[in-house]
Amino acid sequence: MIGGALAASVAVSAAACSGGGEQNSKTLVYWSMWKAGEPQAQVLSAAIDSFTKETGVKVKVEWKGREVAKQLAPTLNTRNVPADLIDSADRFVKSTFEATGQGLDLNPVYERPVPGEEGKSVKDVVDPRYRRYATEDGKAWLLPYEVLATQIWYDGKSLKDVADAPPRTWDELVRLLDGRKAARGGGPLALDADVADYPAYWTYQAVLADMGPGAFAAAATDRTGAKMDDPAFLAAVQKIEKLVKGGYFADGYNGSKFPAMQQKWATGGADFLLMGNWAPKETLTSAPKGFEYRSFPFPAGAAGKPVQSVSLIGFGIPRNARHSDAAQRFIAYFMNKERLSKISTVASNLTTRADIPVPAVQADVKKTLDGAETVPDLDGVKMNQSGWYTKVFQPSRHRSGHREDLRGAVRREAQEGDRRLLEAQRLMAATAVRKARPAHAAAAAHASPLERRRRRLFWPFVAPALLLYAVFYIVPTLVTAWISLNDWAGAGPMRFAGLDNYRRLMLDPVFHDAFTNTLVILFVVGGATFALSFVMTIILRDMAGRKAVRSIIFFPNIVSGIVLSILWGFLFQADGVVNTALRGAGLAHPPNWLGAHLFTVIMIGLVWAQTGFFTTILMAAVDRIPRELYEACDLEGASALQRFRHVTLPLMWDVVGVCAVLWSIHAIKLFEFIYAFAGAAGQLPPTHVWNTAVYAYAEAFSGVPRYGSAAATGMVMLALVAVLVVLLRRLFRRDGVQY
Fold this sequence. Notes:
Helix content is 57%, strand content 9%. The strands form three sheets. Strands 1, 2, 3, 6, 7, 8, 9, 10, 11 and 12 form a ten-stranded mixed sheet that branches. A two-stranded antiparallel ribbon has the order 4-5. With 739 residues, the protein is α/β, with parallel strands linked by helices. The longest helix has 32 residues, at 509-540.
């Protein structure tokens, strides 16, 4: 009996290690985080070609880009996972595989021999530190091949004194910055603050230097918030605050769009840049000839010793991969020294093998890694406590002010003016229905054969449309409602949670801000859009060439919202067209649009983008109004405003109602403009500009997926749309006007 149980255990373990995939399979589907043409993609392509020649395994590779893990996540709970192997940053692999239980344990891969290196297994060639970071509870969820580390970068050619003696302590760094600030006449530090992680690096590095490894993670896991109030934690944060208030960051750091500031650094507009060791790759095309990439670690603080944070890029295998054996073989094959060394020689990056020569631009980073204690980047908080990082830590730097809740005022204003008219219409409609019923019944009794045949064909024609509506709207809505009652990471089993997700929304201050922003967009932006649309309607009514003008103002609606948001960002950044024009007009210090006024600029952009659309619809309604009515107004001496109030608006009231419904739906589900304009480098915008759609996206795709919370947010949005549509239908309900 014991032997049988042991055999069963071994069989289960073997099945778990193989992921249930085919053994000795001859095909492999590989989704990569790199884009075709990138140096890493070139290295991997060469390895794939040689792997196929030597093993006969055909590899189908898809260069998915940085969002590869998010694209794969929805498929992990199925039996048809489309990829057998992916590579991505550690935090994405962990949140997609480890947190959901959908990743294969890669410990067996570490035991595999490395092809071409006799007597060596994968575990013998990978630095033990990095294997330890990618293992939790004994399960290896990532096999890393590239190392990323954050340091302070500078041009060694122009700052030779820094290259000879880089600052070792915080005080030495401040003295260096003081000298460079005086020499430059401005801040020597470059920072693209619109990339949420980049300001976070400064704060985290200060906490790490002062309090040592684990302090940042301790603050993230402390539900009382006491850790963030620790005097040592506050002292570290205040160091960065002094840099900000002291003008140490270059002008425009918090009012530009990425990568403006790192390009400014590369072209000599700033001296130092705190960034990962991908800085040379991203700035190479901007740097002048002879630029010497040098770096030094963040100086030691109160803890008294240098600590280097690192993050990893590596391979992961889905638990349900169909060809997991081939995936494991490829990983071991790629970890061969000759093949992996091309990450160093071609891509100019560090690998997880200590015996591979280091590219010149990474020499300083490698020296630090060899001599300092290393810890996972951000203490692993972005992997393990992503909710705290996104909703607590980052918003602490972007607190928004309180905004007036407009719901009550708008409803009162909407209902007060036409209350009596609506009551009269309801009475008239009820009377008409009562009178019509007998006539309708009589007509039905004496319907012609053709009419009866037409009625019999009604359902056969309507049924396909109803079926599609049910499949693509009603069923997904019901599924979303069910998911909102569960805790679910998108893969693995659901855990019924009842109304807990809704309670969390009600208690989450980030959701409160997001919901408030949604209402502000709905009412304030909507009010401004309709006001401008009405004004444009009055102006264009009798304007020569109005068709050409209508086409011009409609232009923003034929361009992708992503393109518009990027254009809007470049217009309003610190050195953009708007501020350049304001300086030319004599305003010495124009507003920091992308800093303190970010949400205001978003609202202005939405008004600009939507006014043309609604003006076009309203003008179409105006065009059908008989000109004789306007001629009569002219004879009576009516002003343009009186004509609009007594003729135009009443006769296009039904169209205005349709526009109001369209705007309400659009405003509540608005996503791409805010995400692309306020975010940067694929990261989320600051939380003080989120609306409910961005909040739902963040819950589903930021860190460990929280589909239950995202679904609950979606149901709240659906409820808001339903309420608004019902109210608007009642507000704009009138008898049709014949003319």
